[in-house]
Write the structure tokens for this entry.
Amino acid sequence: MSAFLRACALSELEEDTPKRVELDGTPVSVVKTEGEVFAINDICSHANVSLSEGEVEDCQIECWLHGSAFDLRTGKPSGLPATRPVPVYPVKIEGDDVFVSLTQES
Ligand code: FES
């Protein structure tokens, strides 16, 4: 059983604007886009920078430093320089609350 932790309120999320939260000491970027909410680890797999400062487009979050974009559904990078995926996490919405489970999806 995976434990879901409350990340934020759904009403706090703006479309395509990542929100950084810390869950059990893990930085997570919560993103509302295309009618869905995604949670991805907030640290780029290429270097130690915050993905939530990047832009969201086509269900991907782009690292602002060198431009690798990570798929919010799978965490996989679409191009160099990053080669490793970033963990993504299951999201559950109950009313106005967004919950994230740190159990890794992929
Ligand atoms: S630090 Fe993210 S692509 Fe280089």
About this structure: Residues 44, 46-47, 49, 63, 65-66, 68, 81-82 surround FE2/S2 (inorganic) cluster (CB under 6 Å). The chain is about 0% helix and 40% strand. The domain at 4-101 is CATH 2.102.10.10 (Rieske Iron-sulfur Protein).
